[in-house]
DNA sequence: CCATGCGCACCCG
DNA sequence: CGGGTGCGCATGG
């Protein structure tokens, strides 16, 4: 999906701006990429959106304006120097943090790393728990409240990368999304400091306007729930909020929600994925995807395979201790047929499984479902340039399982 | 005019 | 305190 070339350019640009102490905002990023590589701003913008979706880049609202972060660098906590370099390049460092704990999302850095989606989910949850919406009060101008968080996506309009990128604020010149409203679409809010555990109410639209918001919904939906929510894995409650939010934003597409099958509620919870078209594309979509929902698995389960559908559903994982309470919602998931998984699906799966860093390696190597089925132990252990520990777990607990499951169910193919 | 460099104020853990 | 962020100003081409 995202062109590696662009990924590198954009990440380098973000890093560069950061080192210069200049805010990595859309305008500067587009300008610098154009200057350095000749890429059109629109294209850069489109690629940036993709990176945001992949969580390679995090879109955050910091001090009242939008900033982009190199997810890999979000370090927050101790990072060791070691970063392993993944093939992709140096961006991996962060993940380590992720393992440790996603909870924080703090500061600018944002969210916790890249863990993808699920994590995000939980990350968000975590965050919200502490924080919640609202800080509106003061925030507005921004003080720095640091930012909120996470984000991802973006928003706006559709994104078809190529086609429309334009709509978005890409244009270098003045278009910056104003904090607030206009971009409301995109933005969603979240905030961190404010904290109010319970929640949601305030969050409504108005909240958006205030400062921090995160972009994207992916997370947002989830996030604002009060901590308590975690518990219910089913996520029952969440839906509500989420929906609320969405509606407010108008971001979502209802249809899509429906599309999803049955358990609607859940979906709603996770609306973002489901809901937004954008995301879909990249991720699940391979084809007409019917995704199954995660049936509420309990935490420990790594995969839930639904026989009916025959799908291996990647459920989240546990990364840290297995507590997934939070998440469980995982995206409902991917296409049941591994053969139809795209590179993004694979990366997303591993991120969800708790290996965000390694997921990048899969993505860098362009491993899609078909490739995954062909991978052998040695490929996983040595072909991805990932550390042995995670590689072993990935192979034994995921690759092998997925392959086995696939062949059992689709052997005829 | 534009890209950079960076002091300094803020904020968080 | 240490660390991250980014405004605002200064500098250099």
Task: Give an overview in words.
This protein has helices spanning 4-19, 26-37, 41-54, 95-100, 117-130, 136-139, 161-164, 205-209, 217-223, 237-249, 254-259, 264-269, 271-275, 277-280, 343-352, 356-364, 369-374, 377-382, 388-410; strands at 57-62, 65-70, 187-189, 213-215, 303-306, 311-314. It has 413 residues and is mainly alpha-helical. A two-stranded antiparallel ribbon has the order 1-2. A two-stranded antiparallel ribbon has the order 3-4. The protein has a two-stranded antiparallel sheet with strand order 5-6. Helix 1 crosses helix 2. The radius of gyration is 19 Å and the shape is elongated. The two termini are 26 Å apart. The structure holds a DNA duplex (13 and 13 nucleotides). It is found in: Nucleus. GO terms for molecular function: chromatin binding; DNA binding; histone binding.
Summary keywords:
two-stranded antiparallel ribbon; mainly alpha; 413 residues; DNA-binding; single chain; elongated
Output mean pLDDT. Answer: 53
> In percent, how helical is the residue content?
40-55%
Question: Could you describe the largest sheet, including whether it forms a barrel?
Answer: 2 strands, antiparallel
Biggest sheet strand line-up: 1-2
Shape call: elongated
Produce a short descriptive summary:
With 413 residues, the protein is mostly helical. It has 19 helices and 6 strands. The chain is elongated, with a radius of gyration of 19 Å.
């Amino acid at each position: 999906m995202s062109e590696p070339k662009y990924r590198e350019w954009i990440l380098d640009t973000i890093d560069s701006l950061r080192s210069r102490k200049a805010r990595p905002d859309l305008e500067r990023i587009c300008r610098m990429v154009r200057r350095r590589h000749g890429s059109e701003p629109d294209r850069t913008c489109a690629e940036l959106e993709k990176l945001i979706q992949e969580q390679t880049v995090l879109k955050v609202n910091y001090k009242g304006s939008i900033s982009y972060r190199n997810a890999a660098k979000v370090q927050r906590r101790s990072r060791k120097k070691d970063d392993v370099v993944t093939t992709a390049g140096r961006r991996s460092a962060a993940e380590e943090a992720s393992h440790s704990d996603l909870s924080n999302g703090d500061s600018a850095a944002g969210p916790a790393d890249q863990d993808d989606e699920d994590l995000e989910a939980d990350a968000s949850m975590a965050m919200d728990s502490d924080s919640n919406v609202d800080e509106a009060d003061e925030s507005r101008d921004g003080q720095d409240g640091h930012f909120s968080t996470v984000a991802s996506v973006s928003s706006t309009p559709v994104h078809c990368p190529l086609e429309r990128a334009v709509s978005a604020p890409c244009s270098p010149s003045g278009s910056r999304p104003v904090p607030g409203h206009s971009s409301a679409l995109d933005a969603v809010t979240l905030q961190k400091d404010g904290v109010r555990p319970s929640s949601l109410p305030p969050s409504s639209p108005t909240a958006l306007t205030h400062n921090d918001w995160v972009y994207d919904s992916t997370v947002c939906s989830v996030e604002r729930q009060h901590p308590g929510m975690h518990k219910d894995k089913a996520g029952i409650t969440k839906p509500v909020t989420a929906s609320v939010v969405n509606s407010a934003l108008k971001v979502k597409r209802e249809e899509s929600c429906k599309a999803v099958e049955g358990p609607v509620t859940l979906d709603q919870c996770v609306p973002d994925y489901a809901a937004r078209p954008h995301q879909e594309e990249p991720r699940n979509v391979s084809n007409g995807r019917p995704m199954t929902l995660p049936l509420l698995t309990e935490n420990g389960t790594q995969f839930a395979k639904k026989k009916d559908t025959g799908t291996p559903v990647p459920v989240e994982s546990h990364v840290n201790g297995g507590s997934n309470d939070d998440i469980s919602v995982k995206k409902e998931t991917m296409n049941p047929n591994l053969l139809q998984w795209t590179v993004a699906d694979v990366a997303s799966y591993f991120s969800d499984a708790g290996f965000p860093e390694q997921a990048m390696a899969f993505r860098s190597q362009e491993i899609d479902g078909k490739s995954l089925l062909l991978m052998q132990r040695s490929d996983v252990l040595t072909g991805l340039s990932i550390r042995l520990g995670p590689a072993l777990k990935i192979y034994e607990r995921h690759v092998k399982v997925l392959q086995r499951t696939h062949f059992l169910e689709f052997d005829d193919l």
